Amino acid sequence: MGKLAGKVAIITGGANGMGETHVRLFVAEGAKVAITDIDAEKGQALADELGDVAIFIKHDVSSEADWQAVVKETESAFGPINILINNAGVSTVLSAEHSSLDEYMQVIKINQVSVFLGMKYTIASMKEAGSGAIVNISSINGLNGGAIAYTDSKFAVRGMTKAAAKEFARYGVRVNSVHPGIIRTPMVENSEAYEQIQQMVGMVPLQRMAEPEEISKLVLFLASDDASYSTGSEFIADGGILA
């Protein structure tokens, strides 16, 4: 029996990259998964491949109405939600001096507001289920400096995680954040800052990027009952760079 047998999970940004890796591992461990993403073609193809244990829902994570629809459709397909993985995000590189407010707010909406909305609209379902686990994907830039907007949003995810963990503990719902370093994903490899990222890899004590599966295994731990006494904490997977 898998670590997530009988569990129902929502994984945002689940059609590609690290999100897809989370989805595949969660299904392998027995979960039923709602895959959400703006990439309908890849998301639906993944759900079709995985069969009746997965559904795809097109999802703008910054939209309140979309979140309400995602929760309703997931419950209709699988029942009350046990697990939320707030994985969707963008790594846009902005300048505090030269970026517009609209550019800034676009990053904040996707990386930060989406996490608030996800927690807000899944908590009732988790209360019905009797317990739950929320894993918010932040970044090492939620612990140290980086580009404006991205860093701000990832620090906010860390703070929201702690606030929600204290609020939701009474319901048996745990909330933790994961802070990856440099992960070999399409978002990283297609980043405008890829040359800078390559230079950063040389500063990593383990001397390499992480593979997405290495982060997924940490996310699995936090989503499972193995982490039953862990809440309100940040978990770092960065190859030692912050050390």
TrEMBL record:
Gene3D superfamilies listed in its UniProt record: NAD(P)-binding Rossmann-like Domain
Keyword Oxidoreductase: yes
Entry-linked InterPro entries: NAD(P)-bd_dom_sf, SDR_fam
Any one GO molecular-function label of the UniProt entry: oxidoreductase activity
Record has Oxidoreductase as a keyword: yes
UniProt keyword annotations, A-Z: Oxidoreductase
GO biological process, one term: bile acid metabolic process
Record-linked SUPFAM superfamilies: NAD(P)-binding Rossmann-fold domains (SSF51735)
PANTHER family, A to Z: DEHYDROGENASES, SHORT CHAIN (PTHR24321), ESTRADIOL 17-BETA-DEHYDROGENASE 8-RELATED (PTHR24321:SF8)
Protein family: Belongs to the short-chain dehydrogenases/reductases (SDR) family.
NCBIfam families, alphabetized: PRK07231.1 (NF005559)
Name of the protein this chain belongs to: 3-alpha-hydroxysteroid dehydrogenase
Organism, scientific name: Aerococcus urinaehominis
